[in-house]
Amino acid sequence: MGHALARSNFIENASGPVSIPEARRIRPAAVGFVARACTATWVWVIAVVLGAPVASAAIAEGEEMPELPQYGLSGELPELAGKVVLVDIWASWCAPCKASFPAFTGLQKELANAGFVMLAVRVDRKASGDERFLKTQAPGFATVHDGSQKLVAMLEPPAMPTGYLFGRDGRLRAVHAGFHGDRTIEELCAEILPLLKETTS
């Protein structure tokens, strides 16, 4: 019980490690930037992938994606089987989380036809609070609500936001703690592109 309460307090009240000015570095022309970042040469891609740090999280690299329907998420889950999936854990009080949405919209638009799916999971306990933001932002990707905080309690994200990148085989390939503007998008592109080339057995 104590652990669950402590976990809840972290989710509702903690602030992420990314400063608001840094998070706001994301360019207005997010789609155009994502297109440029995701069409980099394979030499650059390989170099970034090999050097990219992996954040610490409860779920380890190589483990399978949680069965999301089992966690009582509110909202419609997209089809994830056989896709490269980025699960973004965010909260309505988190400024860097909201700053990431234009870039993630661009990422989804640029790579959807190749088999990429972006899924944002809001972890506030209250159901209200994000409707105005989501209506104004009109993200081009799926958003669901983890009001019971069962999924986030299992994942134990090290920061807000935290992105979990899964390959077509449904296994975790990388974890990104925080949102650092262009740098985060460049790192994600470098990791996503090779995964899109993989096939499922």
Helix percent band: 25-40%
The structure class reads alpha/beta
By CATH reckoning, the class would read Alpha Beta
Q: Which of globular, elongated, flat, extended, rod-shaped describes the shape?
A: globular
Distance between the termini: 42 Å
Could you give the count of β-strands? 5
Q: Determine the CATH topology.
A: Glutaredoxin
Q: Strands of the biggest beta sheet: in what spatial order? A: 3-2-1-4-5
Number of domains: 1
State the order of secondary-structure elements, H for helix, E for strand. HHHHEHHEHEHEEH
Unreliable stretches covering 5 or more consecutive residues: 1-31, 39-54
Gist of the model:
By secondary structure, the chain is of the alpha/beta class.
Description of the molecule:
By secondary structure, this protein is of the alpha/beta class. It has a single domain (2-197), classed as 3-Layer(aba) Sandwich (Glutaredoxin). The protein is 39% helix and 14% strand. The chain is built from nine helices and five strands, in the order ααααβααβαβαββα. The chain has helices at residues 2-13, 20-23, 30-37, 42-51, 95-99, 101-111, 131-137, 150-155, 182-197, and strands at 84-90, 116-122, 142-145, 162-166, 172-177. The chain has a five-stranded mixed β-sheet, covered by helices on one side. It is globular.
Q: Which tags fit this structure?
A:
single chain; 201 residues; Glutaredoxin; 5-stranded mixed sheet; 5 strands; disordered N terminus
Which SSEs are present, and which pair or pack?
Blueprint lengths: L1 H12 L6 H4 L6 H8 L4 H10 L32 E7 L4 H5 L1 H11 L4 E7 L8 H7 L4 E4 L4 H6 L6 E5 L5 E6 L4 H16 L4
Helix pairs in contact: 3-6, 4-9
